[in-house]
Amino acid sequence: MTLGPLIVQSDHTVLLEVAHPDAEDARHALAVFAELERAPEHIHTYRITRLGLWNARAAGHTSEEILETLNRYAKFPVPSGVANEIADTMRRYGRLTIERAPVPGDAAAEEAPTQLVLRSEDPMVLREVASAKKIAPLLGNRIDEHTFPVEAWARGELKQQLVARGWPAEDLAGYRAGEPYDISLAEDGWELRDYQAKAVEAFQRGGSGVVVLPCGAGKTIVGAASMAAVGAKTLILVTNAVSARQWRDELLRRTSLTEDEIGEYSGQVKEVKPVTIATYQILTSRRKGEYAHLSLLDAEDWGVIVYDEVHLLPAPVFKLTADLQARRRLGLTATLVREDGREGDVFSLIGPKRYDAAWKDIEAQGFIAPAACFEVRVDFGEAERMDYAVAEDQDRYRIASSALVKQPIARRIIDRHPGESVLVIGQYIDQLESMAEALGAPLITGQTPVDEREQLFQAFRSGAEKILVVSKVANFSVDLPDASVAIQISGSFGSRQEEAQRLGRLLRPKANGATASFYTLITRDTVDQDFAQNRQRFLAEQGYSYTILDADQL
């Protein structure tokens, strides 16, 4: 009998032997409930977390399935303490429910008023949470040993506090229907893919939650199909104005909606229509200390709120989302990773993960392009090495990631891919300006007017421009289907989500079936190299591996 590729340890870490023939199957099964922590060459370390287990439970997985997975792939017996903890953690999800119940004493009324209640079949659990200092003010006087009333305004905050105490509540209180609005899909020469239909079905079944799909796998179509399934006025929140216009174009192409029915609410335009697309930036902009545009959320009787790139949800939006618990909420993302550690708030306030498709599964079906990842290590020049050596800690990453030697190396990589469409992506504007000048290529940053950005992106799509130098404004929600090469010259420190999004710019299937190439230029023996290891963790979890190259090998 072949021993498996996993070693499950009593501290809830799981070691994966990368070279084992079953490693890919085990990695795929682990991704349902565990998070990758470290990914050096030979042994990858995962951690089984409470949130991961609760998300798995909300998506329909059981503790028996998870233990069967661990036992199937484990080299040694799974520690009994870990097995018991997994079962106990997953049992906690749903032991408390938030429901809607008639107000006592008013049951005889023709339309009996209702109230929110927190309910549990286990009175001990209910008493434990109700006595907690941060939860007690959210509840009224106990109705019976199984039920507490919930303050009308506290539905979101209660869920946050329950997750923090380790007792995630299943929200069964239902949602306002919103003002009905007929939206239908226009499946003209196309149809929902199987995984997209499953994602929509999972959202409908839960009423709120997050759908996780790879970049390029059609998250916008899942959003459109969910809107059609609900059939109500919809508010869509997106990262920027370019994304808003791409959503509008996709809705016009994929649904019965017309231009008159879709409004844009951004820095440039303030329209409220039956389907309104607003930017996070405008919602969180302040005037005299006040969030001036939050009234948009109450301007219409929305039936659905769609959060695009939900992993980027700004902190102020968490607060307003706590007030929107009576509306259906759909989060769309390629990764639930948040560098600020607020995954628990996404779980509480948007909803649990309802559907998750592995990147390599979608690639195997031909719906996203295969990609090869390379880490190219370069060396400082002598003067830069000295600047780095004497720099303060806060300046070292900028110095390392902006090494001048990256310019000729970028040119060398471009020459390796004649005729291909290349994105050069970075963090620092002065570095990008210098790179754009050296390559003779146009530059897009946050300061580039939206119309000019659109023109340059369109020139890139058409092939009129073969190279674009872009800042982080191109990380998200920019549809560039013909991009086949990306050269990352600097980034937001160790951001896993940014790494995933940047690779995602390349994953639209290519007409010729070609493999995309993702290069990261790393200055050797610096913090640039240290941060790169952290950035790569999420993609390693999805089954991507990085080939390490010395610049001379190019």
Automatic annotation (TrEMBL):
NCBIfam families: repair_heli_XPB. This is DNA 3'-5' helicase. Belongs to the helicase family. RAD25/XPB subfamily. It catalyses: Couples ATP hydrolysis with the unwinding of duplex DNA by translocating in the 3'-5' direction; ATP + H2O = ADP + phosphate + H(+). Its EC number is 5.6.2.4. It comes from Leucobacter chromiiresistens. SMART domains: DEXDc (SM00487), HELICc (SM00490). It is an enzyme of class 5 (isomerase). Keywords: ATP-binding, Helicase, Hydrolase, Isomerase, Nucleotide-binding. GO terms for molecular function: 3'-5' DNA helicase activity; ATP binding; DNA binding; hydrolase activity. Residues 408-554 form the Helicase C-terminal domain.
